[in-house]
Amino acid sequence: MMLRTAPMIFLLALVACGAEQRQPSVLLISIDMLRADHLSCYGYERNTTPTIDGLAAEGVRFARHISSAPWTLPAHAAMFSSLPDSVHGCVDGTDNALPDGIVTLAERFQTAGYGTGGFFAGPYLHPAFGLGQGFDEYRFCVPDLAASMDGQSVGEWAGDPAAHRRSHHGVTNPGVVDAASAWLQEHGQEPFFLFVHLWDAHFDFVPPKPFDARFGDPDYEGFVDGREFFFDQRINRTMAEKDLHQLVALYDGEIMWCDAHVKRLLELLDDLELADDTIVAVTSDHGTEFFDHGGKGHRRTLYGEAIEIPLVIRAPGQLPAGVVVDDLSRMVDLGPTLMELSGLPPSNRFVGISLAPLATGEGSAPRAALSELLADQNRMRSVISGSGKLVWNEVSGDVVWFDLDRDPEERNPQRDLSQGLGPELLRALQAEIRTIQLVSEQHQYPHQPIVLPPALDQAIRASGYGGGEK
To answer: Which residues, including other chains, have CB under 8 Å from residue 111's CB and lie 6 or more apart?
Structure first.
């Protein structure tokens, strides 16, 4: 196990002297489409995330955290279920919702007596996909639509094409954090599990002032304004370097804008005197590509820019401060980690493991990290183990591997599976597939059809998400 610790050592022995402590609460923040390599605490040259950097200094940063999928819906389903995509089955956005038989992270906290709240702005977090299971309140927070929501069901207002369009092109962070803050002020005096999904880092990239000009060229006069990233054909692999630089600068501005809203939530915990009793985790669902391998967006490949995501956890009195874990960690490990830190019993239905022992230098890392892309006629799987990565495209039959120590950007695929890391990676893939088969046979979760409100289905397709990006 590889662990790096800041000079000041956290004294775990000082956890609970004297008065009985309340059960710890949990604040889980998911920042959509956040590449790990665009956070300053992960080595990025721009100071995009001062708040998250501070959180990492007070807690643990997982340097090799891997998502289960390169897009929003299956990644959050894995986050909530601690199961691989092939097991939870919520993988395409057009066929199956998360089965009722899967007990989600929110349901486990709810059963333990926690108040549970979830607040989001992205359409693929809609309860029609089964992700609202276990939340006392689960709200789609599209700004400036409060009046039109009055008297309507969630399905009606969340499926409104105008609401969807605003959530994609508009500024949504303030509405999400306002709603989450109000809920926290009402429910924060008892143990809570609060999920907050920040959507604005997802394209389009139109950060509010002053974040729009924080990283770009002040003299830029080109066509890139951050809008229509997916649909504007001028945004392509041959675009001028100055235009690409401006595009990435706007993305980084959105990241800093999200970081400012993480700060709002942390300051509220301080104001309510809840910070010492609250576990805070900041992560993402997936990354995105800016022509790193010739394309843009995500939901297309399993390269690192699409599946390498951040994970930072602060757990006062339980985890040491300023630690960096260089070992592998996975999306499916987050739920078991938060449960152990909260004192909830482990589940034998999870594929994920708790990372808490790893963070304190007492545990072992997962053997391998599996990612899957099972949408839009794709059937791709990747496995990372040690310093190697293997990618298997079931449709084309292509299998390649990379030595990430020598080729961290995955530029030189190797096809001879008998050489180098090939045999080891094949064994790792076979082991992950056996795990999927075993868990599926043991629990036999019945996959449930998604019943989307017609307007939501129309809105998703109109925005290019039906068989496209998300």
So the answer is: none
